Amino acid sequence: MDVRPTRRSVSELALFGGSKWFDVPKSTSNLVGPDFDRFLDYSQSIFDAAGRPPGTVTARFEARLAAFHETGYCVAFCSGFWALATAIVALARPGRREVVIPSLTYRRMADVIAWTGLLPRFCEVDADTLAISAATAAPWICDDTALLLAVHPIVNCCDAQALADLADETHVPILFDGVESVYERCIDGQGRSRKVGAFGHAECFSLHASKLINGFEGGYVTTNDAALARRLVDLRNGSMVLPGAIDARLADMHAAMALANLDELDAQVARNRARYERYRVALAAIQGVRLLTFDESQPTSYKNIVVELTAEWPLTRSLTLEMLNAENILARAYYAPPLHSKPMAYPHIAAELPVTDQLSQRFMLLPCGEFVTLDDIDEVAKLLSFACAHADAVRACRASQEQKP
Ligand SMILES: *Cc1c(COP(=O)(O)O)cnc(C)c1O
């Protein structure tokens, strides 16, 4: 790659009028693409099937994914959103209204619950793991709880077994959102390592281009419950007699793309790992930036790069993000604002969550995925290092910028 000039002064930052460090944006989206011929091979079978009935490749995809997650069944959907909505409809206890979810999570999680006519009941996450836990969920489980919706965080997993046990003890159904934990494994009640996908009553996943398995768009639900799988299929296929039914099937072209990416998943994870290791080395010397490390005692995808800006970091997170974004480094705040503090147009239950409020200020995602090279990672680290060393000047420039009309 080209040798880049080093910045000599803060005025060379793009935020203050300098040229952008990256011509092409470096995002936090995965955007993994398979070998094109592999994609075409799977697509070819759409045309080869006798009579070309829709759904042939999707059926293959479902069988592959059930095997991959070591579950009895997989039901594919046109998106993760509709996979979630349908699974909530299928699992919610009749006559109860509340769904317990973490507030520090995916921005549309409350929307999907509202769509099903239920009420989000927000809970805290564990401050060390950023994950919903049995301890943070338990206080909110009551007579009116229809469902516990446990979302895995984006680095490492929640304690899936403890949450499943809580659901068991309280007789509440539990649905996991494993979108960010497709590749991960957790330890079950017998001390065995089991793939995420096999815990609780069902688990939901997404095939959006930003996720680990890219199907352009799409989603799926895994479960070991045959009756539930049948009901999910009926709801998904838009059965006219079922309330809550929609047509949310996954088109074969998406399944072909997802299958091709699935074939290459281990290679992708190896590349993710190399990027993660590079971040680890590059960020180690920067005071105030703490990389969240992956638990390597179980398989993990190494996909997302999340850092905490600690008390030693000299700039606010919002100024840090503005500075990075100006350089075309599309770093983002980690799940901010938390859901309980967002204005919401639909019925919900107000919550006071001081731990979540605190945590929501501190973390950010750095670029990851297929369009981020190891050299790019060094450049991101250099910029953070530069900003840290010149923090007073950065703040001063910012202040004078704000004073201009
Ligand atoms: C992206 C995402 C979803 C929704 O998936 P779509 O396919 O984009 O609808 C659900 N949960 C989590 C945690 C996500 O990150």
Automatic annotation (TrEMBL):
Residue numbers of N6-(pyridoxal phosphate)lysine PTMs: K211
GO MF entries: pyridoxal phosphate binding; transaminase activity
Pfam families for the chain: DegT_DnrJ_EryC1 (PF01041)
GO BP terms: polysaccharide biosynthetic process
Keywords: Aminotransferase, Pyridoxal phosphate, Transferase
Domain of life: Bacteria
Statement: the UniProt record of this protein carries the keyword Transferase: yes
Active site residues according to the UniProt entry: K211
Family from the record: Belongs to the DegT/DnrJ/EryC1 family.
Protein's recorded name: Aminotransferase class I/II-fold pyridoxal phosphate-dependent enzyme
